[in-house]
């Protein structure tokens, strides 16, 4: 069930559909994968989760590889994504993180001293299990493997706030009250992230997604100051590897024009703005997204109609179908099947 | 400390500055008030909060009036806002709400049966203490009094989710899976809200702010379906009273063009998009906002510079200065003083 579906145009079938679309090719059908496609909506994942903690699943190569594979046995997704969490590299910096189920930081970063106490680990120290998982996966996978990391601004959001929040008041205050400490924190996270992501690519990751889930909290000035320079450095550090780079921020429509400047192949859009309105804002890039994950709780008829709406809005250039954010644990399996079928059956070639 | 500062133009000084700006006059200085100006950043509020629960403060007319007055004794704000919560009218519908400190719904609404069990209370049942508070305040206040309520979509967000959340997955799923029950719930909330807000105006509220804190979760289609019709009905029901109507949604920049259609005098913008970019999207209305509340944790110099940035961006039409969202409990008193002084000293008349 995990092989690629050949392009109906018959052209360049050696390069998988996902990688072609991610490299800017306006493919005749949209590849599809889902954020958190390995996750709690799958009974086989929940069964493993009863036996192991989240960290055990992430840190045991055979288990993480098995979880990564689970959705590919059910659905003809066009890409796999490493089973992990954006918080994974932070343990090696000296931070203890628990999941309940969102991340909880035992000792939040609140001062210049707290920032100074964080280490920048060597590449091989960061998460030694991750390259092992990637190698295991590449030996078996028939679709491309996406590696990923968190953008510094979003990692800092959790480190300072200490836990998930609706608008991260402590972090936003930290940026205003302690801008120098904030820059030092973002610098350490940037260096660690570059090492972590290049390690993933060297182990075999064929694309990298940079998750900046909380960038949308900020206005342009603040994003320009505390987000953009660090994102740019990470993306530039990955450039020599020639793997497609994907950037996602959520609730960040007001920042799309700035994202259009990034050296990135793919911008992933959440569910708030239709793709035909996002495209002119971000320039000549592949778009990824943007079905509202809540739709997978509706009926198959609604799923098909809404997916086709996204597919039509994506026709103006290269498009990788995805949700606007991670799949909900309550998503219905039959709706995911309908979704994959709808995307696979939608011919883009007439307008491509 | 709570009297209005006369307009430097000397024109129409009988109508308070806030009401003139809220009615569309491009005043020569911007009136200022702050969302949650009566709240935890004030030591005198925290002292009361040690003796009384939040509901006790809201439901005891003398206490609620005292809390409403507290910030006006310190700062020359141009308006007062009723001390209350958007959840206040929901108790009379048959829902138990606690604060911890955000709202917790004892029995979340999850089905058509749960919706059917909610009552539409008579106007005088909804929150009988509220008109008493308003009358107490009007007999003492030297600045206009703003009443308020929650928009149905936002009230429904809490009722279904049961508590605060970063992206309200259960509510978004409810809208997709149970659209008819959702409309019935929104209908009941709309009728209750109309009764509640007209009661406030009849008791003496001189302006009404409709808080739609969570509207920005939705894309245009969903907001058009589940938000707009109910907001329109509430705003139209208030029209005969001729008090300025203010609408605020947070994180909802993608919905501004739809808000531009509302029969509303004022659109309140959060901190994400500068006012000079918001104004062309919402048409010929007064803008309110949009300083990032986190700035009140920085230094007075930063507060002054950032406030002046907002003031300059607001020059293209009528502007009521405010934060983009509620003031943080950690805001520094001296920064609030600097903010009020900066706004009062900023002459808009050269370009008005």
Which SSEs are present, and which pair or pack?
Two copies of one chain form a homodimer.
Chain A: H1 17-22, H2 43-51, H3 54-59, H4 61-74, E1 80-81, E2 97-99, E3 103-105, H5 112-116, H6 123-126, H7 129-138, E4 145-150, H8 152-161, H9 169-177, H10 179-203, E5 207-212, H11 220-226, H12 228-238, E6 245-249, H13 256-259, E7 266-268, H14 275-282, E8 286-291, H15 300-313, E9 319-323, H16 333-345
Parallel strand pairs in A: 1-4, 4-5, 5-6, 6-7, 7-8, 8-9
Antiparallel strand pairs in A: 2-3
Helix pairs in contact in A: 4-7, 7-10, 8-9, 8-10, 9-10, 10-12, 15-16
Outline of the structure:
Chain A is an alpha/beta fold. Helix content of chain A is 44%, strand content 11%.
List keywords for this structure.
disordered N terminus, homodimer, 16 helices, 352 residues, TIM Barrel, 44% helix, alpha/beta, two-stranded antiparallel sheet, seven-stranded parallel beta sheet
């Amino acid at each position: 069930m995990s092989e690629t579906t050949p392009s109906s145009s018959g052209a360049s079938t050696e390069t998988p559909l996902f990688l072609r679309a991610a490299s800017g090719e306006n493919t005749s059908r949209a590849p599809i994968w889902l954020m958190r496609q390995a996750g709690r909506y799958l009974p086989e994942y929940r069964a493993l989760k009863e036996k192991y903690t989240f960290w055990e699943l992430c840190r045991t190569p055979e288990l993480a590889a098995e979880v990564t594979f689970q959705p590919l046995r059910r659905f003809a997704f066009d890409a796999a994504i490493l089973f992990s969490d954006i918080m994974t590299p932070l343990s090696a910096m000296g931070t203890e993180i628990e999941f309940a189920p969102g991340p909880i930081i035992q000792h939040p970063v609140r001062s210049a001293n707290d920032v100074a106490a964080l280490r920048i680990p060597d590449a091989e120290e960061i998460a030694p299990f991750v390259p092992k998982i990637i190698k295991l996966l590449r030996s078996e996978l028939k679709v491309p493997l996406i590696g990923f990391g968190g953008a510094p601004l979003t990692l800092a959001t959790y480190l300072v706030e200490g836990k998930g929040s609706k608008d991260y008041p402590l972090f936003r205050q930290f940026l205003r009250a302690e801008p120098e400490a904030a820059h030092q924190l973002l610098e350490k996270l940037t260096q660690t992230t570059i090492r972590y992501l290049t390690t993933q690519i060297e182990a075999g990751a064929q694309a990298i997604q940079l998750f900046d889930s909380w960038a949308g909290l900020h206005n342009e000035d603040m994003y320009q100051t505390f987000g953009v320079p660090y994102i740019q450095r990470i993306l530039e550090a990955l450039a020599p590897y020639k793997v497609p780079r994907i950037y996602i921020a959520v609730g960040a429509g007001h920042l799309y024009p700035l994202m259009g400047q990034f050296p990135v192949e793919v911008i992933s859009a959440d569910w708030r703005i239709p793709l035909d309105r996002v495209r002119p804002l971000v320039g000549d890039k592949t778009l990824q997204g943007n079905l509202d994950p809540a739709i997978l709780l509706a009926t198959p008829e609604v799923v098909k109609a809404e997916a086709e709406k996204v597919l039509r809005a994506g026709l103006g250039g290269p498009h990788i179908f995805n949700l606007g954010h991670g799949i909900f644990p309550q998503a219905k399996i039959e709706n995911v099947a309908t979704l994959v079928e709808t995307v696979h059956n939608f011919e883009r070639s007439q307008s491509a």
